[in-house]
């Protein structure tokens, strides 16, 4: 598996279908407070060499993320910045307004990637039309979705002009969804993971502890390397500078194909987060 994906260093990337390079390791900011906490996390990550920052309107910390970017001293053009349109803002006109509001909060004039956060029934196609419009206007370098299962993607793709370039999904050894990964890969949709640590549960798995010993790495490092070798973009969330640094220390070892297959085999279908087929927010 690792042979298909060149994984070099923290600034390395996977190429999206339209040629845009998406850094394969990013900083997630879910549940990071919109104050000095998120500002410092973003600054730490950028100063350590991260070039991909993921937020969302729903996280209510876009202002802090934008401030962290500005204070980092790293040029905006070097940073891959992602945010998402929230469920209550879905629909064509509403999405255009939500996009402008996100840009304003972030203090930027374009996004590298904009995602539909959840597949809100009866709304996501109109939302997607708005993303296609913004993409055509060059206000976003790439557009994608989050939490879309195969049938959501097929439904969207039956009518869309631009196929989503990214699908950000819950992904970890208990929820691999290889069929969905394969579907995305065959349609040129970059897979990206959220909750790679199963909201902490992965640290309790004996098998992960065994692999950590075998490779002389932390469990978090094993899991992030597993993501990258499967060709999946990872955005681990942390607000601690030491952990942000440790999460990026994954470029001096490689998991064997057998160990990747073993991790894949832990699949139980267990979700840490909501079910994309059954959510009410």
From TrEMBL:
Residues with site note (Lowers pKa of active site Tyr): 84
Source species of the chain: Maribacter aquivivus
Active site: 59 (proton donor)
Name of the protein in its database record: Aldo/keto reductase
Claim: Iron is one of the keywords in the record: no
Tree of life domain: Bacteria
A Pfam family it matches: Aldo_ket_red
Matching PANTHER family: 2,5-DIKETO-D-GLUCONIC ACID REDUCTASE, NADP-DEPENDENT OXIDOREDUCTASE DOMAIN-CONTAINING PROTEIN
Keywords for this protein: NADP, Oxidoreductase
Family designation: Belongs to the aldo/keto reductase family.
Entry annotated with the keyword Lipid biosynthesis: no
Chain segments annotated as transmembrane: none
């Amino acid at each position: 598996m690792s042979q298909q994906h060149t994984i070099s260093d923290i600034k390395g990337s996977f190429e999206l279908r339209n040629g845009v390079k998406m850094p394969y390791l990013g900083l997630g900011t879910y549940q990071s407070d919109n104050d000095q906490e998120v500002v410092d996390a973003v600054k730490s990550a950028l100063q350590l060499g991260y070039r991909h920052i993921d937020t969302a309107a729903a996280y209510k910390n876009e202002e802090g993320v934008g401030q962290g970017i500005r204070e980092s001293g790293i040029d905006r053009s070097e940073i891959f910045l992602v945010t998402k349109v929230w469920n209550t803002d879905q629909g064509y006109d509403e999405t255009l307004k939500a996009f402008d509001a996100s840009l304003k909060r972030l203090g930027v004039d374009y996004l590298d990637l904009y995602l539909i956060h959840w597949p809100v029934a009866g709304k996501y196609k109109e939302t997607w039309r708005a993303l296609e419009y913004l993409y055509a206007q060059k206000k976003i370098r790439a557009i994608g979705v989050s939490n879309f299962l195969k049938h959501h993607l097929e439904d969207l793709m039956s009518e869309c002009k631009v196929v989503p370039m990214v699908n950000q999904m819950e992904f970890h050894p208990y929820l691999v969804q290889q069929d969905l990964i394969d579907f995305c890969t065959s349609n040129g949709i970059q897979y990206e993971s959220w909750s790679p640590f199963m909201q902490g549960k992965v640290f309790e798995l004996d098998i992960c502890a065994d692999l950590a010993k075998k490779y002389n790495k932390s469990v978090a490092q094993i899991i992030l390397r597993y993501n990258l070798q499967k060709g999946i973009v990872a955005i681990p969330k942390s607000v601690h500078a030491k952990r942000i640094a440790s999460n990026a220390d994954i470029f001096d070892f490689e998991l064997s194909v057998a160990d990747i297959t073993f991790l894949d085999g832990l699949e139980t279908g267990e979700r840490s987060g909501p079910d994309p087929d059954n959510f009410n927010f």
